[in-house]
Design brief:
about 80% helix; single chain; globular; about 120 residues; mainly alpha
Amino acid sequence: MKQVKTAMYVQTAYMVGMGLGSLFMPGTILPLFGFAPPADVWIRVLAAMILGFAYVNYRCTVQEVVPYFRASVTGRVLFCGMLVTIGALGLTQPAVFLLAAMETALAIWAWTGLKKLNA
């Protein structure tokens, strides 16, 4: 369980960092990934959503909600697939592949820990 919880805590920290950065400093964060500074409020709306999900992630990790861990791995793999598809279609900056790689690595870390629970 320790490996899964550590992976989930790291995922939560990543979400909080991206959420806070996008909420309070989108003009600084987005250009780091090759995106133009925002001209509207939507990045902040998404950042608020990310922070809400980060809280759920944290609470489920503290309470060791294994079904949530499993669902989060599946959800993150789906998210990565969508990011790669969007990037492959040329609809966004190539930096999206970096985000997909980070999410994939975190999902694999949690998944390997979950496999150990079933062994």
